[in-house]
Design brief:
Number of domains: 1
Keywords: Membrane, Plasmid, Transmembrane, Transmembrane helix
Strand content: under 5%
Protein name: BphX family protein
Structural class: mainly alpha
Radius of gyration: 16 Å
Pfam families: BphX (PF06139)
Organism: Marinobacter alkaliphilus
Number of strands: 0
Distance between the termini: 11 Å
Shape: elongated
Largest sheet: none
Order of helices and strands: HHHHH
Helix content: over 70%
């Protein structure tokens, strides 16, 4: 249970940090790093739409993170959060692949995020398998 508890705490904190990083006050610098050389149209409504969309992604991650932190108290009971995390990481990984290939995301940034997704997916599967085996 200790390894599962650590996973829940780690993913919970990571997702809460992602929430903060996707809020409008912090996205301008992030977008400039993610999409170097792309005109972001910062003073136009389209940029506000982009910020709002990222904030929704962050809120979803933050919600999963909050549930994971709550679930750290009793990882066996909250085991179902793990496949939610795995599915989220798979979808986000696919999105990052798309962003690298077709949306001008900086290659180094995309590769780092893909590696992070793979780490969470692998760790999630290991913890999930261990919890299921120990039932």
């Amino acid at each position: 249970m200790t390894k599962a508890r650590l996973f829940f705490i780690a993913i919970g904190v990571f997702y809460i940090i992602n929430l903060i990083g996707t809020l409008p006050f912090s996205t301008l610098g992030l977008f400039g790093t993610m999409y170097p050389g792309v005109e972001l149209h910062v003073d136009e409504p389209i940029f506000t739409l982009l910020q709002d969309a990222w904030a929704i992604v962050g809120l979803q991650l933050g919600a999963i993170g909050a549930v994971a932190l709550w679930g750290a108290r009793d990882p066996g009971r909250y085991e179902a959060v793990i496949p939610v995390v795995i599915a989220t990481e798979v979808v986000d990984g696919l999105w990052d692949f798309y962003s690298i290939v077709w949306s001008h995301e900086a290659l180094w940034f995309g590769l780092v995020t893909l590696a992070i997704h793979l780490i969470w997916i692998g760790w999630g599967f290991r913890v999930w398998r261990t919890l299921r085996r120990n039932r």
